[in-house]
């Protein structure tokens, strides 16, 4: 019954990232309840949601399987299995200008912006705030009904543009992550749709982040994307933590985490509606000065690449010293094509014709939202219009379309004295154009909606009770953050037995944040390059009668007092040692190179120096003149 909607959603999601997706075969697999895909290639614009001037140089999904039990959809679990996700990314400016790839990237960015400006495909009632109970029931059902397992993810970014003499690479690796339903003892169990309390366990193994500030050109993977060797290298790196004899410099060492989620479907119970307990083992974060400077340079490079991206079509692709004339032509052409010619009468006339054509076609799309031919023609026209003009044309089309969709409200019953004010006319209500073509709920038939209500246990006529609260807890054994310079730690901050929680009370639109830790220690580098304590706090030494050395409790609209906010903080005695060398090392770590300063300030300082020298020379010449 829901096969068509599920097929639409999966096609829409996968088609956004996967290249050459066979929609017909995928639809057949969805209708049979067994979807199995292998060797999927990712689109160049798959990372467009990051809003960065980067693209996918090579992307691969090894295996994907989805089991959908259509005959017992509301009593059995939907299983999703994904394995071997490898992505190699890089800046868009490290290659020559390719019109097809640039157009695909620009269109993807345009679609993301338009999608963010368009109402999402959620049911109308929850969107309008009339009935949040349906979405709540739907999300609870989906969370309880899906078992997910993802294995071996490696996303790597290689850059030869930011600093051509020192290529670098960074990446994120994840060995395995899974989410499945359990019993109250956190053991795997079959789904019980009648249960009032749902237990979900999420396990994550070996999540890490690395950043190598220098990679020799011959050790870059991008030169091997024409074969399958790049996939093997990324896969082996998850276990070996190295690629082509280059060991990874981890910013975040591999982390293992466990998240226990308890969902309460019965609002009468005392436990929160949703309780998530995040348990983390030892966390170690190391940031070297070279990585720190590399990150700053990359941030500046992204800004320059974003500005230069729309002028790439005019780029001469030759060094300035070889052909200065080509660069003058490049500057002239860029200004003329981007600043002058778009405002010529002929260009304005063509733009107006295209704008009106898009508006008229969008009116037809509002009348026939499922017409694929109209959608394709709209996509072609959108390539020649920017986001502002597309949004204006759509709103203009909706205004032109709305008068034809007027609904007459039935006349209200009047009392005995209604004759005094005259006869009350029927009220005109404009058609609601808020729902978009991505609204999956509107694609369901009344019978499918009824079955969906029954399957998730939703009664639209029942009164919605105020939810108790949502609570998120974080348990962390230890966390150490270190700054490294010349392979030596110059600062280390360690926190042990940290417990933090965040909970909400939707009834009063309030929240509460609390945090406490057993001890924390800050160590700095001595002259002998050994770590010495700077700030020490140990409850066993300085506060033997308490268990926590630091506690914080922040609450909005507190229950126990009439106030907007309340703040409680308790800090036990700490020992602070002043060490000048340690502070100098930290200050030197964050010292930026002169070239990173404001060039105008440097130029002004240079000019003032030259003026002072000239003035001194002039005075000396006058004094020595005979």
UniProtKB/TrEMBL annotation:
It comes from the Eukaryota. PANTHER family: VACUOLAR PROTEIN SORTING-ASSOCIATED PROTEIN 13A-LIKE ISOFORM X1, VACUOLAR PROTEIN SORTING-ASSOCIATED PROTEIN VPS13. This is Chorein N-terminal domain-containing protein. The keyword Transit peptide does not apply. It holds the Pfam family VPS13_N. InterPro entries: VPS13, VPS13_N. Keywords: Transport. Residues 1-600 form the Chorein N-terminal domain. One of its GO terms (biological process) is protein targeting to vacuole.
């Amino acid at each position: 019954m829901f096969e068509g909607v599920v097929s639409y959603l999966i096609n829409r999601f996968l088609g956004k990232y996967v290249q050459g997706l066979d929609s017909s075969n995928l639809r057949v697999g969805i209708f049979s309840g067994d979807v199995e895909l292998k060797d999927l290639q990712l689109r160049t614009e798959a990372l467009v949601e990051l809003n960065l001037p980067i693209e996918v140089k090579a992307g691969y999904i090894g295996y994907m399987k989805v089991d959908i039990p259509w005959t017992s959809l509301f009593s059995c679990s939907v299983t999703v299995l994904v394995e071997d996700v490898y992505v190699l990314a890089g800046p868009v400016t490290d290659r020559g200008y390719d019109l097809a790839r640039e157009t695909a990237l620009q269109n993807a960015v345009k679609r993301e912006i338009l999608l963010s400006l368009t109402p999402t495909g959620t049911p109308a009632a929850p969107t309008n705030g009339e009935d949040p109970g349906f979405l709540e029931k739907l999300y609870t059902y989906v969370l309880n009904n899906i078992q997910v397992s993802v294995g071996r993810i490696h996303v790597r970014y290689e850059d030869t543009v930011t600093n051509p003499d020192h290529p670098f690479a960074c990446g994120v690796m994840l060995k395995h992550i899974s989410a499945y339903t359990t019993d109250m003892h956190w053991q795997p169990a079959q789904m019980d749709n009648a249960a009032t309390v749902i237990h979900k366990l999420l396990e994550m193994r070996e999540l890490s982040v690395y950043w190598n500030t220098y990679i020799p050109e011959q050790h870059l993977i991008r030169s091997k994307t024409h074969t399958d060797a790049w996939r093997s290298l990324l896969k082996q790196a998850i276990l070996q933590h190295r690629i082509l004899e280059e060991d990874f410099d981890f910013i975040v060492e591999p982390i293992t985490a466990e998240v226990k989620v308890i969902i309460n479907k019965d609002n009468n119970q005392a436990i929160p509606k949703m309780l998530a307990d995040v348990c983390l083992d030892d966390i170690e974060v190391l940031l070297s000065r070279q990585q720190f400077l590399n990150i700053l340079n990359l941030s500046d490079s992204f800004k320059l690449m974003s500005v230069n991206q729309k002028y790439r079509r005019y780029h001469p692709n030759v060094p300035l010293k070889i052909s200065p004339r080509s660069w003058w032509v490049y500057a002239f052409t860029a200004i003329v094509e981007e600043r002058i010619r778009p405002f010529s009468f002929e260009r304005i006339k063509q733009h107006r014709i295209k704008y009106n054509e898009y508006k008229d076609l969008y009116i037809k799309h509002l009348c026939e939202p499922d017409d694929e031919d109209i959608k394709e023609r709209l996509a072609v026209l959108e390539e020649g219009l920017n986001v502002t003009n597309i949004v204006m044309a759509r709103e203009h089309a909706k205004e032109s379309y709305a008068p034809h969709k007027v609904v007459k409200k039935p006349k209200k019953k009047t009392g005995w004295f209604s004759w005094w004010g005259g006869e009350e006319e029927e009220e005109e209500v404009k058609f609601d154009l808020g729902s978009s073509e991505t609204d999956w709920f509107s694609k369901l038939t009344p019978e499918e909606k009824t079955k969906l209500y029954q399957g998730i246990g939703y009664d639209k006529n029942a009164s919605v009770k105020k939810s108790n609260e949502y609570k998120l807890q974080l348990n962390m054994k230890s966390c150490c953050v270190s700054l490294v310079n010349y392979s030596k730690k110059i600062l280390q901050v360690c926190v042990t037995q940290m417990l933090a929680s965040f909970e909400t009370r939707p009834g009063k639109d309030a929240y509460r944040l609390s945090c406490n830790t057993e001890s924390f220690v800050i160590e700095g580098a001595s002259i002998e390059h050994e770590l010495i304590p700077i700030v020490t706090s140990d409850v066993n030494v300085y506060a033997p009668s308490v268990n926590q050395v630091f506690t914080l409790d922040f609450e909005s609209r507190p229950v126990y007092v009439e106030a907007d906010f309340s703040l409680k903080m308790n800090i036990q005695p700490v020992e602070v040692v002043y060490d000048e060398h340690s502070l100098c090392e930290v200050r030197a770590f964050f010292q930026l190179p002169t070239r990173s300063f404001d060039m105008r300030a440097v130029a002004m300082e240079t000019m003032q120096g030259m003026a002072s020298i000239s003035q001194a020379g002039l005075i000396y010449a006058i004094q020595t003149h005979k």
